């Protein structure tokens, strides 16, 4: 097990996401953070901005690489020679969804496994959607996102969308 992938939209990346990345990196020597470019979904930040946020927030972490992708996660996993999916779980609803996705991913890519990491009590309530709402109302997001991400957002990234 050389590498794992932690997929998501990360719109924006939060302290909860960073916690999962750090913990995954303690288990695996290489962690790909897969930023989904879902054109059917209206994101606050472009895929390039989200990748840059992740790069800045994980800049001091060896073995962490942000990559963008479209389409199926298993296609990216094949390109990266990766068979392990990391998922952070906050609630029972997250568990149910991830169980279903795990079965589908194994059917599409034999040998694919999902490793679930439980959110810590201090971050389980943080979600990207809640942070987006705080951004929309110009509220302080510094307690919910890495400093580098707050600096990017407060520095004017995508202010025209707010």
UniProtKB/TrEMBL annotation:
Reaction catalyzed: (R)-4'-phosphopantetheine + ATP + H(+) = 3'-dephospho-CoA + diphosphate
A Gene Ontology biological process term: coenzyme A biosynthetic process
UniProt GO molecular function: ATP binding; pantetheine-phosphate adenylyltransferase activity
EC number(s) stated in the UniProt entry for this protein: 2.7.7.3
CDD domains referenced in this protein's UniProt entry, alphabetically: PPAT (cd02163)
Keywords, in A-Z order: ATP-binding, Coenzyme A biosynthesis, Cytoplasm, Magnesium, Nucleotide-binding, Nucleotidyltransferase, Transferase
Cofactors named for this entry: Mg(2+)
Binding site for substrate: 9, 41, 73, 87
Residues at the site labelled Transition state stabilizer: 17
Gene3D superfamilies noted in UniProt: HUPs
Family designation: Belongs to the bacterial CoaD family.
Name of this chain's protein: Phosphopantetheine adenylyltransferase
Organism: Christensenella massiliensis
């Amino acid at each position: 097990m050389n590498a794992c992938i932690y997929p998501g939209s990360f719109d924006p990346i939060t302290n909860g996401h960073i916690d999962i990345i750090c913990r995954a990196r303690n288990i695996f020597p290489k962690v790909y953070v897969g930023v989904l470019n879902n054109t059917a979904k209206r994101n606050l930040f472009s895929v390039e901005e989200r990748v840059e946020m992740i790069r800045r927030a994980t800049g001091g972490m060896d073995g962490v690489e942000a990559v963008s992708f479209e389409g199926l996660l298993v296609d990216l996993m094949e390109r990266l020679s990766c068979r392990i999916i990391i998922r952070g779980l906050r609630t029972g609803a997250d568990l149910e969804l991830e169980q279903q996705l795990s079965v589908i991913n194994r059917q599409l890519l034999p040998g694919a496994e999902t490793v679930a990491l439980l959110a810590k009590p201090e971050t389980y309530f943080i979600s990207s959607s809640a942070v987006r709402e705080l951004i929309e109302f110009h509220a302080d997001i510094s307690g919910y996102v890495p400093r580098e991400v707050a600096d990017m957002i407060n520095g004017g990234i995508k202010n025209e969308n707010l």
